[in-house]
Design a protein that fits this description.
This is AAA ATPase central domain protein. Helix content is 49%, strand content 12%. It is α/β, with parallel strands linked by helices and 466 residues long. The termini are far apart.
Length: 466
């Protein structure tokens, strides 16, 4: 049995043992898996109370970073050569960028009386390394302390890349407020669908094991923009009581060749290390765009990497609920929608009557109002308005009142009449999306993938889209 498997068995019995986490990190580093090694080192630091062991862990992390970054150093681009002439002594100093320290190569031409104190340089280098270790240790202690103070915020882990001065990339947990379905007004039909299709199966793992079906999988939220797809993803994580890893396109794309695919791979590695969890990709069509329509080879490779990480030969995503959100499901690569990837499509429609009523209440909070606002009337007048459209209505009404006051009018608050006037100026943005989807359903929905949208159109807005 390999050392890694033995250590992993011990870790199951003692999950908070920093010594075991440290040894696992060393083994993975020796095998060339730097991502897993750094994840174990971070976990070891968080659970470690011994100062000597912390220094060992930080030293091991620095070594991994040095090995990872050293081959990528571009000597031509990063070298700065300066000629220093003083008393007929010529010293050429070449500075090379390094994640751990600045390596200085000195080519010197000395006269007979010139001297170079090698011992002094070695002492300075050792002091520099020691100072870096202490600085890195302090940074991780600050992160650990910040996370420990927010005990009531235990639901969301927002995916970010943490950069130290030595360009060490880490994933740092940021606690945010927990959301559940109770925080969303209306949408009862959608809540029931999510409860039956996703939440109940997750709380009954024995059924999954009986039918040899893996826990987790992929879910795609699609619908008009501004209708709450991201919010529903957070609420779903809250209902399942799972950490929420939110990934934006800026966390993945990188201008350097091959780095975007590496970033995507590291995101999945991080999620596997922290499972069970919810991994959420916003605007997934950006890097999951159909390869048939793509013109740039770099984006095609990124789509290939996403397909590989979601359901490749070496992909172990058991316990990870992967959620994607998009406004343009027709642009996604067909391979992403097959079984084992985003095989469960959830249509997020425009807010229903109750949801629109609640959105008006939320958007008017903290604003001056005159009299009682008729939320029922406002909700009835805003059919097919998205949450973003309703916010635009409130902003338009507020701007009209501000202009009136600045023109010499009496200072007052927002009334129901002001909001009704604003509704006449703002048009629902979801209509155009529904028209596009209606055409797609008519000519390209042979597999019935978007039948939920077809039912919605036939039931609520068929007369609008003819």
């Amino acid at each position: 049995m390999s050392k890694i498997r033995v250590l992993e068995k011990l870790l199951q019995e003692m999950p908070d043992k920093s010594e075991i986490l440290y040894l696992l990190g060393l083994e993975y580093a020796e095998n060339g898996n730097s991502t897993a090694a750094m994840n174990y080192f971070i976990a070891a630091l968080k659970n470690c109370n011994e100062e000597d062991l912390k220094l060992l862990i930080v030293d091991a992390m620095s070594s991994v970073v040095k090995k990872e970054k050293a081959p990528q150093t571009d000597l031509k681009e990063n070298s700065k050569i300066s000629d220093i002439q003083e008393d007929k002594k010529v010293v050429k100093i070449e500075e090379y960028s390094n994640p751990k320290k600045e390596c200085i190569e000195i080519n010197h031409e000395f006269e007979a009386d010139g001297e170079f104190d090698e011992d002094e340089e070695i002492v300075k280098e050792e002091e520099y390394e020691e100072a870096e270790k202490e600085e890195l240790e302090e940074e991780f202690e600050e992160v650990e302390e910040a996370n420990g103070n927010d005990e009531h915020l235990e639901n969301v882990i927002d995916f970010q890349v943490f950069k130290t001065k030595r360009e060490i990339h880490k994933f740092i947990e940021e606690r945010e407020e927990k959301f559940t379905f109770s925080d969303i007004g209306g949408y009862e039909e959608l809540k029931n669908i999510l409860t039956i299709r996703i939440i109940k199966p997750l709380f009954n793992p024995s059924i999954f094991q009986k039918f040899r079906k893996r826990i987790g999988g992929g879910i795609l939220f699609y619908g008009p923009p501004g209708c709450g797809k991201t919010f529903f993803a957070r609420a779903l994580a809250g209902e399942c009581n799972l950490p929420f890893l939110a990934v934006n396109i800026s966390d993945i794309l990188d201008p350097y060749f091959g780095q975007s695919e590496k970033n995507l791979k590291e995101i999945f590695e991080y999620a596997r290390f922290h499972k069970p969890c919810v991994l959420f990709f916003d605007e997934v069509d950006t890097f999951g765009y159909s390869r048939v329509k793509q013109r740039q080879e770099s984006f095609r490779v990124l789509t290939d990497e996403l397909l590989l990480q979601m359901d490749g030969f070496k992909s172990e995503n058991e316990g990870i609920l992967i959620i994607g959100a998009t406004n343009t499901p027709w642009d996604l690569d067909m391979a992403l929608l097959r079984q084992g990837r985003f095989d469960r499509l959830i249509f997020v429609p425009p807010p229903d009557l109750e949801a629109r009523r609640e959105i008006f209440r939320v958007k008017l909070m903290g604003r001056p109002v005159d009299g009682e606002i008729n939320y029922d009337l406002l909700a009835q007048r805003t059919s097919f308005f998205s949450g973003a459209d309703i916010e635009n209505v409130v902003e338009t009404a507020a701007e009209a009142i501000i202009d009136e006051i600045l023109s010499g009018g009496k200072e007052r608050g927002i009334t129901t009449g002001d909001l009704l006037k604003a509704i006449e100026k703002v048009k629902p943005s979801t209509i155009e999306w529904l028209r596009i989807m209606k055409n797609y359903i008519t000519f390209a929905n042979e597999d019935g993938r978007f039948d939920d949208v077809a039912k919605f159109i036939n039931k609520y807005c068929r007369h609008l889209l003819i």
